[in-house]
Design goal:
The complex is a heterodimer of chains A (175) and B (114).
Chain A: E1 15-17, E2 23-30, H1 34-42, H2 44-47, E3 57-64, E4 71-78, E5 83-94, E6 98-105, E7 114-123, E8 126-134, H3 138-144, H4 154-174
Chain B: H1 3-11, H2 14-24, H3 30-34, H4 41-53, E1 57-59, E2 68-70, H5 72-107
Helix pairs in contact in B: 1-5
Classes of the chains: A alpha+beta (175), B mainly alpha (114).
Chain lengths: 175, 114
């Protein structure tokens, strides 16, 4: 059996979980103070330096009106010319600890508006980032991740990493 | 139930996960699989049926032994679901790491102090 796609090969500090049927959450620690990480999420010139998405894409347009109710506009462009736009609005802005914003892609592939919450937690000079995306429905979340699954499987998803890690450990033990 | 639902449902049971872990080491008969568990062969066979229906294992044609074999593809597909999301953000965050490093260097005159 090929183990190339199993979680052991991934960066340990990034976790992806599904805390509820409608959410996906990622956490990651950054070696920088909170205000600096916060700014990287809210200043267009900085966002354009990293928020490119999948390979081949880059964040070409980024407009941010950083106040509650203020609009956001992001447009990604693929090297083959394809574009993908997303608009939204801020609901909460608490520098340097918390951001809440709505988001909706032009070609609504997320099954309705999503609400993104980013929490920046101080950790002795480093910053723990927790990003939670709340989808309109479970079907919307599952569809957004590309599979169109149904049924209450959130718990299984959350546990999958552990299952596969144990399978891998077993495989290593046998080697 | 689609393939991915079936995979997750099959993985939700500890005995079935243990069976899959055993099969990573190589094919095994029902009797061999039942050995480490305090379980009758019919109970193990029930679990094998679930795994087989989910496409996670296949059974050999040898009528006597019908060895079980791990099918890697559905497991990999289930894992891909989370992996796809993780990969995109890993890429983003690796770039963000570099940007933060540059910003920190800018703040420190000379940029070489630790």
């Amino acid at each position: 059996m090929s183990t190339t796609s199993l979680p052991g090969s991934t960066v340990a500090t990034l976790t992806v979980t599904t805390p509820s049927d409608r959410e996906v959450q990622i956490t990651r620690v950054f070696d920088a103070p909170r205000p600096m990480v916060f700014d990287c999420w809210t200043i267009p010139e900085l966002l354009k330096g990293w928020l490119h998405g999948p390979d081949g894409w880059r964040l070409a347009v980024c407009e941010i009106d950083l106040r509650v109710g203020g609009a956001t506009r992001y447009v990604w462009q693929h090297r083959d010319g394809q574009v993908m736009g997303m608009s939204g609005a801020y609901r909460e802005i608490v520098r340097p600890s918390r951001l809440v914003a709505t988001e909706l892609f032009d070609e609504d592939w997320t099954g309705g508006e999503t609400v993104g919450t980013v929490v920046f937690t101080e950790q002795t000079g480093k910053t723990l980032l927790t990003q939670t995306v709340l989808y309109a429905s479970q079907a919307a979340r599952d569809g957004a991740l590309g599979t169109g699954m149904t049924g209450g499987m959130a718990e299984s998803y959350a546990q999958l990493d552990a299952h596969l890690a144990s399978l891998q450990a077993a495989a290593r033990g046998a080697a | 139930m689609n393939q991915l639902d079936a995979t997750f449902a099959a993985l939700a049971d500890p005995t079935r996960r243990a069976i899959l872990a055993r099969l990573i080491q190589g094919d095994a008969s029902v009797m061999e699989l039942a050995e480490p568990f305090a379980m009758s062969q019919p109970s193990i066979s029930k679990h094998l049926k679930v795994l087989e229906n989910a496409g996670l294992i296949s059974r050999g044609r040898d009528a006597q032994r019908r060895p079980c074999r791990l099918e890697a593809k559905p497991l990999a597909e289930a894992n891909d679901w989370l992996e796809r999301y993780r990969k995109i953000w890993e890429g983003n965050f690796t770039r963000l790491d570099a940007l933060l490093g540059a910003l920190k260097a800018e703040k420190t005159p000379g940029g070489s102090e630790q």
